[in-house]
Amino acid sequence: MPGETITIQAGQCGNQVGLQYWNQLATEHGINPDGTTLAYPEDTSLRFSPLANTTNAQTTTKDRDDKPELFFSCESSRERYTPRSILIDLEPSVINKCTSKMPMINPRNIHLSEQGNGAANNWQQGYIYGTNYETELISLIDRELDKCDNLSSFQLIHGVAGGTGAGVGSKILELLNDRYGTKKLLNTFSIFPYNEGTSDVVVQPYNTVLTLKRLIEFSDATFVFHNDAMNSIENLLYAKKNDIDRTAANAFNETNKLIAFIAASVSNPLRFPGYMYSSYDSIYSTLIPTPDLKFLTTSIGPRGGHHSNNAYDMILELSNDRYKTNRAGPKTNYISMMNYVIGDSFNQQEIKKAILKLQKRTNFVPWVPRSIPVVRGKKSPFSEAKLSGIQISNNTSIVEMFSKILNQYDMLANRRAYITGYTQDNSEEERERVMDMFRDSREVVARVVDEYDRCKSKEYLEDEMMDIDEL
Ligand code: GTP
């Protein structure tokens, strides 16, 4: 039986995505914004949205067969659910938004900086802050852990390119590894910034490379969401809608809802358990063959219309590169792939037909079985969609994406541009120390790029054996 998951959300991006994530989970389990619950319905046409706080159907009750307690704790005397989540930020606005929209969030689970002015898009500032407040952060995590009967995993939601999600996030990864090591799974939902045609902050490649090193060393599975790809998906899915609010304050709203839907769907078979894949362990061990090959791409297909009723179309749409959360193309090789089909009933023949087609189309690396497992997930009785789905794959699109980041990093690092933001003083030794730290992170990332590149070859496993023999 899987145990509980504790979520840690850090920085603006982490908390904004986190807000949508908890909205999605609460919706699926019929939990109101204040943590009280709706009657568990038999009537699956019930519609409910915690953020909008509306419900519009009659229900009849039945015993729950979902497991919200894996992600929410519940004080039985109050019968109120509260997310097993720790919210960290160095400036208050996003966390204030989270608590006002979702009063179910426990104020004791919040860590806000007293200065309240953020980490200035600088990994180092976030990391140092995390180091200075290590004891407070650990005690928050330990207190949450004490509320669990059998903690299985931690998960971090964060942006990799700013100061807080990246720097404090990196520190959290180190702390979790030091304290709980291999005993608990640690997965991340990591958001990568735009790098096409927009003027995001210039030092983002430094922050990203420094964060990637910690993800490579300490996470067991990292779900990659690239804002460029998310933006394209959003445009495709909402092309005919004029009602998307694209003002600065809500620029990421739709993207975050998509990320939240995917992140929530990943744990569908844990929260609505069936026969298979009812633990993160079983899902990740199917997708991740070696510790370095752990950067996962997801897809989300069009929802609504005829797609929602047809598993065959949905599975094929999920394989369409246009719906991937990290840009993939015809040359992308696949190490593994898993499709989730979530609904009340499925046409098994449709699923079988779609998988056979996918097996023929998919460019697998030569040393893996070409199997494509399907998670037949149970639909939340509170959700509208008759059928929904996601795909998770482990593929070589990571090579292109990380190489781009390394190129951008090199352009800055070769000139030692902007490194004073990362140094403690202006001495030559300090500059050298920082450059060493940068070089070390770069090497770790380059090794993973090389690993993803090498895994395309037939001899990959044999090379691995030789590497082990040489030790
Ligand atoms: P500081 O602001 O330096 O304290 O760190 P932070 O972690 O709060 O920074 P932030 O979360 O703003 O991360 C930086 C990058 O994440 C931005 O350049 C954006 O590309 C991206 N980002 C910020 N907010 C969001 C969001 O709500 N959703 C998504 N998808 N990306 C975001």
Secondary structure layout plus pairing:
Elements: E1 5-10, H1 11-29, E2 48-49, E3 54-55, E4 72-75, E5 80-83, E6 85-89, H2 93-101, E7 110-112, H3 123-132, H4 134-146, E8 153-159, H5 164-180, E9 185-192, H6 204-218, E10 221-226, H7 227-237, H8 253-266, H9 268-271, H10 280-287, E11 295-300, H11 311-318, E12 334-343, H12 348-361, E13 374-378, E14 387-395, H13 397-413, H14 428-454, H15 460-470
Brief rundown of the structure:
The chain has 15 helices and 14 strands. With 471 residues, it is of the alpha/beta class. The protein is globular and about 70 Å long.
How does this structure look, described?
With 471 residues, the protein is α/β, with parallel strands linked by helices. It folds into two domains: 4-37 and 66-399, Tubulin/FtsZ, GTPase domain (Rossmann fold, 3-Layer(aba) Sandwich); 402-460. Helix content is 42%, strand content 16%. It has 15 helices and 14 strands. The chain has helices at residues 11-29, 93-101, 123-132, 134-146, 164-180, 204-218, 227-237, 253-266, 268-271, 280-287, 311-318, 348-361, 397-413, 428-454, 460-470, and strands spanning 5-10, 48-49, 54-55, 72-75, 80-83, 85-89, 110-112, 153-159, 185-192, 221-226, 295-300, 334-343, 374-378, 387-395. The strands form three sheets. Strands 7-6-1-8-9-10-11-14-12-13 form a ten-stranded mixed β-sheet, sandwiched between helices. The longest helix is centred in the last third of the chain and has 27 residues, at 428-454. Guanosine-5'-triphosphate (GTP) binds at residues 11-13, 16-17, 90, 118-121, 159, 161-166, 191, 193-194, 200-201, 227, 252, 255-256.
